[in-house]
DNA sequence: AACATGTGCAACCGCCGAGGC
DNA sequence: CGCCTCGGCGGTTGCACATGT
C-alpha cells in the first residue's frame, strides 16, 4: 500500500491476506515454528515475501493475541508507558500480554494521542478575551484539526507543541536502582505547587478549560475543590506526570531517566 | 439517497542493529 | 574491519466502514 514495493519481488502477492493464506501460514508455523522468514514463503507455498508473513503472524495469527477492545486498565498502562518510553511500541507491547506493537501504535495514533495533546492545544496564546462558551467552541475546533492530523499522520500545525521523548535505543537491559532526585520527586507530585487562579462557579467536568485572554487554564483534579471553588492549572505548564481523566497523561517528557532505572521501574510491582 | 468527512486498522516501507563471514 | 543478510521496529498509507450533512 502507498509506496512502491520494497524488494521489487515481482510476482509476489500484496495486500490483504485471504483465509486460505492464513491457514497455510498457521499450519506451517505450527509444524516448523517461527523464524527463517525469508525461506518460509517458498517452503510453505505462499506467494508472499518473508516480511509480510512475519508481520501477518506477529500481528494477527499468533494464538496468544488478545482480541477485543483495549480495557481501561490497558489504556492507562499504555499512556503511562508511552510517557516513559515514547514511541517504543514493541517495548510497550511487551508489558501488555496479548497485545501487539502494531495494535498499540494504532490505538495511540487514533485514540490516545488526541487526548494527550489536547491540553497543549488549549494553551495557544490568545489575543482576545473569550467567554466560556466561546472558549469551548474554539477548543472543539482545535480538537477537530488534531483529530485529522492524528488519523492521517500528517505534521501537526506549527502552533501545537507535540509531546516528545527522545531516547537512545538501548541494546541491552539490566537491573539497577532508581533513586528519584529531588526534581524527580517534585515531578512525581500530582500537581505542582504553583500560584494559580481559582475558578468560582460551576463547571461541567474535570479538566475543563478556561481562557483568560493570556493563558489557558484547566480545572484541577476532580472539580470539587473547596465547594464551589475549583483550582485552575495553566495548561501551558504541562504538569509532568499527572493524569487527567479527560485528556490522559500530561507530559513534557522525562528525558533524564536512564534505561536501567526505567527497566527497574517497569519491573517493579508499582506497574 | 447521495455525497462528504471522519475513523479504525491491516499492511507496507525504509531504516537500523545484530550476527555471520 | 567491512560487507552482507536477516529480523525487528516505527512511521506511514490506503481501504473499508461509520457517521454527518
From TrEMBL:
Keyword match Transmembrane helix: no
Domain of life: Eukaryota
Principal subcellular localisation of the protein: nucleus
Keywords: DNA-binding, Nucleus, Repeat
UniProt entry tagged with the keyword Nucleus: yes
Domain Myb-like: 9-61, 62-112
Stored InterPro entries: Homeodomain-like_sf, Myb_dom, Myb_TF_plants, SANT/Myb
Record region (Disordered): 133-152, 167-189
Signal peptide: none
Positions of the HTH myb-type domain: 9-61, 62-116
Molecular-function GO terms, alphabetical: DNA binding
Subcellular location: Nucleus
Protein name: Uncharacterized protein
